[in-house]
Amino acid sequence: MLVFLALVTASLASAHPPSEPFEGHEVFRVQVEDENHLDVIRELASNYQIDFWKPDSVIQVQARSIVDFSVKAEDCVAVEDLLKQNKLQYEVLISNLRNEMEAQFDTWSRAAGHSYTKYNDWETIEAWTQQVANENPDLVSRSVIGTTFEGRPMYLLKVGKAKPNKPAIFMDCGFHAREWISPAFCQWFVREAVRTYGQEIHMTELLDELDFYVLPVVNIDGYVYTWTKDRMWRKTRSTQAGTSCVGTDPNRNFAAGWCEVGASTNPCSDTYCGPAPESEKETKALADFIRNNLSSIKAYLTFHSYSQMLLYPYSYTYNLPKNNVELNSLAKAAVKELASLHGTKYTYGPGASTIYLAAGGSDDWAYDQGIKYAFTFELRDRGRHGFLLPESQIRATCEETMLAVKLMAAYVLEHLY
Ligand SMILES: [Zn+2]
Q1: Same domain, 253 and 337
Q2: Cys staple from 300: which of 139, 171, 374, 401, with CB 3.0 to 4.6 Å?
Q3: What's the predicted TM-score (pTM) here?
Q4: Which GO molecular-function terms appear in the entry (predicted)?
C-alpha cells in the first residue's frame, strides 16, 4: 500500500516542475540609493549565484531604484550580512522559493486537460490551439509561422470574422519562459473572443472589423524547460559553438538598437542579445511574419510579467517616439480601464524612463517598422509572488487585462492609418 501511494504521488508530482532545487532560496528586495550601493550589488552578483528578477540583470541596476533577486539557500546568510554591513535597506519577499513554487498551483494533484484558470504545459496548449480552431471555424484559424530551435511548431491563431482587407492587431505571449501568466492571458483572450462574439457588442464589433493574430507562446522551448527542468529559466534554448551556456534573451534579439544598452554580449547572461539580431529561430519567425503582414498590422501588443506596467517605445533610447503624446494618453486610458475592475494599479510610459534602458526589444522593433501602436504589458504582480503568481489570480489578472486590450483595440479601430 505504501509503495502504491508513493507511486501515485510521484506520478502526480511529475506533472509539475521540480521544486526541490529551490528549497531555502530567498528572494530579496533591496533599495539601491547611490553608487556605493550599486557597487555592493555588483559585488554580490560576481561572488554569488544571484538570479535577478527585476531588473533582468545586474547591468541594468541603477542608483535610486529597487532590485529584486533570488539567492541560493547556502548564500543567503552571507548576502544578508553584506547588505546589513553596507546599510542597504532590504526585505525578504519570498522566504522559501520552493514553497512559493508549489503554492502557485491551486492543488498539487491535477486533472488532466486544458483549463483557462490554471497554468497549462506546452503539450496542453498545443492541443488547445487545434481544438479552439476546430470548434470555432468561423472565428479562429491556426497556422504555423516557424519552428523553434528544438523543432517545435510555432502556432499562430488568427481570430476574427472573415472579411477582405481587414486591419489587424498582433499579440504575443511567452517571450520569457518563466513569466507563466503571460501565455495564460493569450489563451484567455482567445476564449473571451469566441465566448462573447455575437453576445457582447464591443467584442462583436472588434472581431467583425479587426483580425487578432495571437501567438500564445513565443519561446516554446524555454517554456517547456520551465515545466521539466528549471522553473526559473528565462531565455531560449539555443546552443552555439564556443560556449556551454545555453539560450538567448529573445527580447534583446531584435534589430532595435541591438545590444547597445541594457543587454549583454556574454552568452551566459540572462540578457544575452544573441550572436546577431534575429539569431533565434523564434524571433526570426515572429519578425518575418510581421514584415510580411505590415500593410495590415496596425498594433503590436506583447505580454510579459511582472511589475504592473504598460510600456511603449522607446526602451533602447531616452528619445521619445513621434506620437508620444498619443501613446501616453492611450496608455493612461488603458490603465484606468484596467484598474476599474479590481483596483489593480499600473504605471505607464516610455520603456527607457519607466522601467529601464533595454535594447533589442520587440515593441521598439515593431514601432520602427511603422506600427504606430506598440505596447508591452508587464502583468501582475509587483513582486509579492513575482514570476510565481498563484493560479488563483489568473482569472482576475486576465479579466482586468482584457478591459485594457479591448479599449486599445477600439482606439486603434477608430484611428486606422
Ligand atoms: Zn519578460
Answers
A1: yes
A2: 374
A3: 0.95
A4: metallocarboxypeptidase activity; zinc ion binding
